[in-house]
Amino acid sequence: MTNLSLFLMLLFAITVTTVPVFADDDDDERIGFGERDDDEHEDDDDDERMKLGSGIPDMVLYITVSAIVGTIGYTGFKIITARRPKMVKK
Amino acid sequence: MKSRYFFLVFFLFLIPCPAFADDDSEDVIEDLGWVAIGAGVIATVPFVAFIKIRKFALNSGDSTIQIAKQMAPSYKPILNFHIILNSIGYFSGMFHGLLLSSNLEPISLSLALVMTVLMISGILLRYTSSRNSKMFNRLLHGQIGLVILLIGLILLHVLTADD
To answer: How many CB pairs under 8 A join A and B?
Structure first.
């Protein structure tokens, strides 16, 4: 009962966070007015922004993925070694 | 008693709403990111402090064991608070990322990955009953390396987000 209610609350949280964003109609007003200018500014921003596949920021992503994979592997390895019965020495 | 608990949970989920009280959509989305960081800090720092104090009290000696025993009933409410507030932080952060997905860059993607791994391991730790799964997720969820990585990525994201 408690688990189910917690999941329902999580679902509710999703709706609370998304609905007001889509209720905003500022973006609709912009259509047709200065649309071209916005696009040009976006192009300028894109040049300055750190994009995927661009040097050092990309390294951060590779390091993160390796760290996650390494941590999961290390955790699994620790559990397997802890559960394996020890060899009895004669 | 139960209805009071549900009302508390209900109001906790309304915390991100003030972020939308602003008219400027860019600021709103940015505020959502700050909500995520704030919720994460408020959810995690007291919980970790509680665990550390309790452990310290248990290991210190006879007189402090009584204090640790008195702290035991508070564990579940603090754990629930940790789960609920971190869920709010996670979903706020994810929606902040989704709404700004046109500006996707590797640091944000890394942050989203680490958050998801910690969130999934936390949910599995709480809601699975298998012994192996519990042990695996307890070890994974408490990995200091992942926590340091998360803090580092949050700092990097905040510092580079305006570029």
So the answer is: 104
